[in-house]
Structures are given as C-alpha cells and as structure tokens.
Amino acid sequence: MKIKVVGIPVQDQERALTFYTEKLGFVKKQDIPLGEGNRWLTVVSAEEPDGPELLLEPAPNHFEPAKVYQNAVKEAGMPYTQFRVDDVQKEYERLSGNGVEFSMKPTDMGTSKVAIFDDTCGNNMMIVEMV
C-alpha cells in the first residue's frame, strides 16, 4: 500500500491553486474537469514531482459536514496538515516574503521547530523541521 494522494478541503479551488503554486512553490500535477465547476486538482512538491499529490478538494462547498469540520479546526487554531521542511526559519522568511501570513512564528518544540500559516482557503497549515 502506498500514499499517492492526500486531500485537503478548500473553499475555492482556483484561489487554492494560486496560493499553493505562487506562494508556496508547489507545481500543478493534475487538473481534470469534473462538472459543475469542480476539478480533480492536485499539486506536488517541486522538489519531488513524482511524490504524493495534494488534492485541493472543494468538499466544503458541497458537503456541509466537511465545511463544519474545516471551520471548527480553523477556529481552534489547529493546523489541518503539516509540510516537512529542512529549515523552518529559512522557509518562514521565504514564505513571509511571498505574502504568506503566519499565526505562529517559528517555535522550538523540543524535537522539532514549527510555524503555522493561513492558506487563505479555510485552513491553518504547519511547516515542521525535525531537529
């Protein structure tokens, strides 16, 4: 068994695509129309183009429980998922320079350093450096 696609809920697929490619530096992998304005839309790490795909899932727009869950996680200040980086401080500076807004600046957590940012599509995301 392999992990190939991981979905995250987004409130606007086009805005999510712009954020994840232009601000974070991911690369669009698949963009397949599904009807009613929805798409099978994935991005991948530029560093690992054949690695796992991140599905920008429009579920909050069509499935109320997904919207409730997404809002509750965001309001609690919890990250929806995490991205591994080699250097949190360096990545924080790069992303801040791209206009990404952080709710938690780089913080030492003992065995890791973390920072949390808003993906502008309904989610908090965390970058993590293992130390």
From TrEMBL:
Tell me where in this chain the VOC domain is found. 2-130
The UniProt entry, under CDD domains, shows: VOC_like
From what superkingdom does this record's organism come? Answer: Bacteria
Which PANTHER family does this chain map to? Answer: GLYOXALASE/BLEOMYCIN RESISTANCE PROTEIN/DIOXYGENASE, GLYOXALASE_BLEOMYCIN RESISTANCE PROTEIN_DIOXYGENASE
Q: What is this protein called?
A: Glyoxalase
Organism listed in the record:
Rhodohalobacter mucosus
